Amino acid sequence: MTPAEALHLIVDLQAAATSASEAADSFRREEVIRLRAEIKSREARLVELLAREQAEAKANG
Q1: Dihedral of the CA atoms 47, 48, 53, 58 (nearest 10)?
Q2: Which ranges of the chain does DSSP label H, i.e. alpha helix?
């Protein structure tokens, strides 16, 4: 391998590492967005269940 070929390989590897890092960051952002949506959904379900429980408790007096 010539020095020029080695340098080209190093540059390619650095570009691949940067792409992989950017993809990982993007995945993490998407995962965070998905998890936040899931949390909001579960919070809404909890509020729903608590409201129903309170209504039943009030009805049963």
Answers
A1: 90
A2: 3-60
d(CA 28, CA 10): 27
Residue in the structure block whose two tokens are 């809404």: 44
- What is the Cα–Cα distance from 50 to 30, expressed in whole angstroms? 30
Q: What is the pTM of this model?
A: 0.61
Which distant-in-sequence residues (6+ apart) come within 8 Å of 51 by Cβ? Answer: none
CA distances from 1 to 10, 12, 15, 19, 51 (A): 12, 15, 20, 25, 72
| Look-up of token digits 């990982």 | 24
- The pLDDT tens digits for 13-45 are 999 999 999 999 999 999 999 999 999 999 999
DSSP 8-state secondary structure symbol assigned to residue 4: H
